[in-house]
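The protein record passed on for reference:
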Amino acid sequence: MPLRGRQTFCAAIVDSAECNSAGQTDWKSVFRLKSCLNCRPNIGDFFVLTKTTADGDSTTLVEEPRKTTRGVKPANESGLAKTAKPLTIFLDGEFVPEEDAKVSVFDHGLLYGDGIFEGIRFYNGGVFRLEEHLERLWDSARSICLEVPMSRSEMTEALLETIRKNDLRDGYIRLIVTRGVGNLGLNPAQCKRPSVIIIATTIALYSKEMYQNGLTVVTVATRRTGPGALNPAVKSLNYLNNVMARIEANLSGADEALMLNDQGCIAECTADNVFVIKRGEIFTPPITAGALRGITRSVVFEIAAELGIKISETDISRHDVFIADECLLSGTAAEVVPVVKADGRVIGTGKPGPISLRMIARFREITREGGTPIYS
């Protein structure tokens, strides 16, 4: 029988085959199985181990990892969706095929995570909140003493042209500015010119069912980096803090991770801002708690005002999430998505609540209404 389940298993044969008096192989394999905590394949992955006998025959003992054809909930994929044709990438002033879009191994964005980025959505032929994203990009650059080697108008045109060259009307942009090529030393003064990369593609962070039914989240041990170390307001290429929290969520089988600050209050999730709803009011952590000043977060504030729902910035504890009537997350890639379970506790009725559903519906309307035109 193949081993199946959400965890990978490592097998070790601990005794050898023996031959009986007839010269035939008569062996018994004993396996020591232990959970391999550094990976969690999809359900349906399995192992193959073979044992070769004295006469050269091979016997299958256990089956090895291979992909099944069953659909698997993409809770932990958080990746870019595959496009039908190769992408065209903007790289330092040129448009190149994705296979030729390469950076130097001496780029400090690669060596040290020294750089900044923005994730930007576009809908129905319009880039959503482009000016706000570019303003945050330039703010991040100023904070880390990085000079963006293009004007905002030049960046805007390069971004729009990247979308056009990929014939897209709906999708996701990853805009990256690295410190550029230097030597192996840490000193950024060795990097003479920053590098700009623009990727336009599609993205599938969560499945349709997860937007309909809600996510599960867990509180993780990894604390959100405080502003005294690396201010979360800087959207830097160094996302290891978030990645480690994401790994903990994956190991717990959750869809997202709640990250606390050093005071034990909720800061944000790995890629989303957090909102809890109680008695018809919405509460969210302040920026000072370690939350990113999210672009989609600001849209949630606008929608709440439009719908006449009171929204407040205040410190939020895990307890506040547990007793909430509703909970939702917001982010450029995630958009607005409900949460129905936290640390094993069912939130509210265990289904997306009425305020969450109104917020999501209105958000989707807004995203289709305007934006910076791509094909004007």
